[in-house]
């Protein structure tokens, strides 16, 4: 063998060198090629790792954005625009590092609330009329669900993604809840400087659903690098991510191949020159291969850890949000759950087998049909569904969940997969129930309160008024809401009250004032108003509550007292002058009376003149006595009201006796004056039409306390609803007052009936009582002056005996008649008739 020509040929140094050169060249080129493949794979893996990391962060951002915007939309849908919007926005920003701005948009598309407001001066900007923002906003409304829009160039600079969730109140679109994420914030979280990337260039784009054109977030020009685009599967539009090597460097394996070529030459030369060096070269090659294998192993381990860490972060986020995800493969009917689903349904992942049948067994029996129907309808209509239902857990416990699902279809519109999320909302349901019960209790208490109660929010808008407030203002509940309560203020008070309101709450002090309400009928009510702040458990002000009480009577009394005080001195001087004149007249009358008395004994004619003079004297004297009596009664009343200072109990008792005696004496003087005028023929009446029933009602209302004190009841029997009487209103009222007062005076039980009829143009009024009655022999004495049937020291009823005599003369003066019927112990009936029109 060793003598074989081939063996001998290779044993030669040149042949060995050539053979070594060829062998080394082949080996090195193979290694170079492997190196080339490894480098290419490393670069692709690095790009894939970057892409996966960014995709995971982006999907996490979507999930956080969905949760944040849905939470804010839910608050607005349930409670209206929150007065503590900044507080809620701060909490949302603190929870997630991706969010830069929180916004609220109204139903017209105008941005109404922004936090933080600094460098975000976009309030009033209309997104529905914006060429760049309208398509995403309209898509959100159309979907009636969460949507991410972008890229958006911000006014304060930079590019952002805007996540929006539509707000629907009672099925009507009412605006958006939105969060803004600057792309710089997103890349900073990845420790990537997109504007100055050395190793890779980055780009994020969203495919416009209307035009199919890509809208790029960054300024990097990647028009020629479309092959680096990686689609991102998201529910909210088609997105693409680019991670492009910054420089297209020559693969290190090329240099390795070139160097290997020279190494092969040197190796061949070395073998040719240094026989026996092949073993060392082979050892070096093996070491290099082992090192590369170690690098590959380390890279695989690092990538696996990153994937596990991302999965752990996603599970943690779902646990915090109490949000589980599920997926149903409609081809294999296989149902899969996330870890949070097992926690929500309180099932052991090792023991519980996830199937559609097991899932429906966990749903409350009363809700299963509803869930099946909602799912079937969503698949049929090819629309997402959202439904709230109950889970029936162990120990008969109930848990409320919000299930949101959507079905995916293939190119032939055949349903192939359904996926969704389920959120535990039991705490929210309990809170809503407590809130509803609290609101009902509050409204029940305020509706029955004897004072006006109102609520006003931080913007000065009225949010609630009770029944008493509406009674005072003359406005209904709807008219009073928002700034409508301003219309209840009296025009002369409005500017002052609104200014005081603003000053009080700008200085964080209590609001307290007196004002007037003017209703639609022109009625004015004086009110004392007090309002204070409403604060939550953290001492944050979220509105104001106030009460208003009617002080109209007090104001009128004060005004009357002021007028009385102002006119008191003038009245006293006037009455003093009248009294002095009356005294002089009285002396003159006495002289005349003495003169007439002497002449009376001589002539009957002069006696008749003396009788007339007596009546005239009584009339004049009664008038002069009545004037100072009014002053006595008035001043006594003022003292009893303690306007001049406090009184002790004995002083009050004595002054009350003085006032009572004065009123009794004044009544006596009035009766004497009336009978004197009647006998002197000086009584005059004024005839004019008036509402008789109104005078009767007024008289009964005046005497009602006196009757109630004795336990008597008034009854009326009236044949017509309206009676116009052409007579002297004051004198008719005097007759009613006398007759009904007598009925009360002489009755101790039962009722007093007033019967009114119109017969042949005559008004007939009967006052019937169930009192002590009158004997037949005394009926003819009733209408005689100064005659009382109960006389002597033991009489039990006060009076002068002039009342009925005055009534008879007044009725006859007015063209009517009066009569009485009675039975002892059975009661009495007094009847007077008056013509409706004087003859």
TrEMBL record:
Residues 727-838 form the Histidine kinase/HSP90-like ATPase domain. This is histidine kinase. The keyword Transmembrane applies. It holds the Pfam family PAS_3. It catalyses: ATP + protein L-histidine = ADP + protein N-phospho-L-histidine. It comes from the Bacteria. Residues 613-681 form the Signal transduction histidine kinase dimerisation/phosphoacceptor domain. Residues 49-220 form the CHASE domain. Residues 554-610 form a coiled coil. Keywords: ATP-binding, Coiled coil, Kinase, Membrane, Nucleotide-binding, Phosphoprotein, Transferase, Transmembrane, Transmembrane helix, Two-component regulatory system. The keyword Lipid metabolism does not apply. InterPro entries: CHASE_dom, HATPase_C_sf, HATPase_dom, HisK_dim/P_dom, HisK_dim/P_sf, PAC, PAS, PAS-like_dom_sf. PANTHER family: HISTIDINE KINASE (PTHR43711:SF31), TWO-COMPONENT HISTIDINE KINASE (PTHR43711). The chain crosses the membrane at residues 12-33, 252-275. Its EC number is 2.7.13.3. Residues 312-380, 440-506 form the PAS domain. GO terms for molecular function: ATP binding. It is an enzyme of class 2 (transferase).
